[in-house]
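Predict structure. Chain length: 265.
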Amino acid sequence: MPNDAPLTETVLLRRDADGVAWLTLNRPQARNALSMALMQALDAELAAIAEDAAVKVVVIGGAGPAFCAGHDLRELRAHPDRAAYLAVFALCSHLMQRIVRLPKPVIARAHGVATAAGCQLVASCDLAVAADTARFATPGVDIGLFCSTPMVALSRAVGRKAAMEMLLTGDMVDAARARELGLVNRVVPEAELDAKVTALAGLLAGKSSLTLAIGKEAFYRQAELTLEDAYAYASEVMVRNMLARDAAEGIDAFLDKRLPVWTGT
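Prediction complete.
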């Protein structure tokens, strides 16, 4: 990834470039396991990015040899009580929903392994680009802890049969298979991962931020509706979008055969 500078805590790094915020999970010795501190830092940073007009796109990646190995099992076992467990999974669920509801595209830059809650993180992002050496799994079943919360994101990203196979077997899925299942969008040579992610992020950053925000929200909302309700809702969204300044500018630019000038309004 691009050179990163420390945020307020070393568990999360951030670098902004050309409208893209690069967030790096920075617990390489723990394979970027999602400790409470890391989840809190990532959630807080995404909340700030939501209000930052300069940021058009977010990329989430991991430092070291892995993307994310899931929850920090040592931390979980250090506090074996109901209240502590509820706090961990409530925060994780909130974080994943924060990503879905963020009014900006979020791209997962996946390398190494993305397992359990790390696989959940990939599935929660809007887009995912994986190195050809990346591997994915929901292996909680192997340690007596079914990946129930990762299941929520996984089952919305891939087909039911594929999700159930991953959840029930805990088997690793390679990058090519992950693409076939719909868990990732693109698989690229590991040496080209940064360049490919940068190009994709730059492509999105060059579009109307308002249009992307409208479209992302509508995509996730309509997916939970019946067909009839989805069309009714999407029609209202289209009308609202048509009345926006960026839509008028985009259509006029297309008709005039010129590049549009976006204002985000």
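Summary: The mean pLDDT is 96.
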